């Protein structure tokens, strides 16, 4: 039984957490654009309609499948050149703050979208951006999640003049919202996307951040370039699993799958999808996976090992042996869910884009540049101020990043999978994938099925109604159990399933406002 049913088409499908974003993306497919063109419009629209989750001052990542090729779009931004552990110490900090001007890293979203479009897009860049600029100027009904987030973060938004001006009038769902400043920014970006990094937008952002006590400078923005690199991949169950490379935590998901295959394959075969044994198995996988992540993953330019050698057999074995000797270990993850928005697009040629964007926490740093109404991220809050930590703060360094997406190529079927969920994302990806590959669930069943999430730092295990647990789990694995009413806010997921034809089927989560809209190229309406 499922509560929602997927949408399907041979011409394309767009899924996002906002109906307008899905609709505009689908319209781009109807115009003859490909998955990348539609992804640009979908992403920018989410930046306007859900600015608290994925605004224009955040980061963007994507796995892009064009034909048989899969590449990774890395839109992570580095720390400012003037930010260091020594600087933070002089300011009296012993750990990174969770909000504020010193948590802002260079926003990578705009340059990464342009880089993706430049390599793979078909339609004109200016046209794609202007579609969203018109929306921001015309206005739209405030989505429920935006109005709710504004109310819940009232105190944070009130502390910053730009945020108060931009967001505090949005207190009720479905009232008209206009972002005329953001519309002006998009008009400039439509003419030249580098205006965000070298023009008036960059000047306004850097000036405002420094006015508010931060150190992000014009040169930090001007020197930024997104990159297109190879993804990580793992052969598993006759499928090729693609995830984002460092600085993302994508290797964590692949590590869990590799350990599962090497150490616990028989256990999974003997467990049911909602069984206590599966919960135990997750606990056995999570501990080494997050230990591995926090020991090795950061900006690849600062890593001690080859980022593409993270799944080396000897490294995996060494991690498992180390864990067997340790009874406690340092885990840096924070308990956060849902401060991200994921979308996925498929087109008539079987091209796929699994895109994800975020400010990190709701409204990011809490600062919003007022002229162009751009909320700025707090991604730098994940840096460590411990000189010995691999993810320690250093100038011009990208932090370990929670954003990641997954493409699974099983020859006859290809899946593009993603979700909000912060540090829980590797567990969620593993959960969805095993639902599909081991328990033969449809994509909609895989998304809707009850979940378990283990917080490795606070040692709290949350599980939705429908999952079997035992009290001895707390003693055996050290997690305090908390049951959540089904469905809970344990991430908002979407999946596209691609079959030969092509036939695209898009599943959305009942846990959020996700909307799947199919494309139809031969419609009789005038274009």
Describe what you observe in this structure:
The protein has about 525 residues and is α+β, with helices and mostly antiparallel strands. The protein has two domains: about 260 residues, no CATH class; about 210 residues, Gamma-glutamyltranspeptidase, large (L) subunit, C-terminal domain (Serum Albumin, Chain A, Domain 1). It has 20 helices and 21 strands. Strands 1-20-19-15-14-9-8 form a seven-stranded antiparallel sheet. A hairpin with a 4-residue loop joins strand 16 and strand 17. Helix 6 runs antiparallel to helix 10 and helix 14 crosses helix 16. The longest helix has 21 residues. It is globular and about 60 Å long. The model has no long low-confidence stretch (mean pLDDT about 95).
Main sheet: strands, sense, barrel: 7 strands, antiparallel
The global form is: globular
Tally of alpha and pi helices: 20
**Tally of strands:** 21
Give unreliable regions as ranges.
none
Residue-averaged pLDDT, rounded? 94
Q: What level of helicity do the residues show?
A: 25-40%
Give the termini separation: 39 Å
Number of domains: 2
Output the structural class.
alpha+beta
Q: Which value, in Å, is the CA radius of gyration?
A: 22 Å
Strand content: 15-25%
The order of strands across the largest sheet is: 1-20-19-15-14-9-8
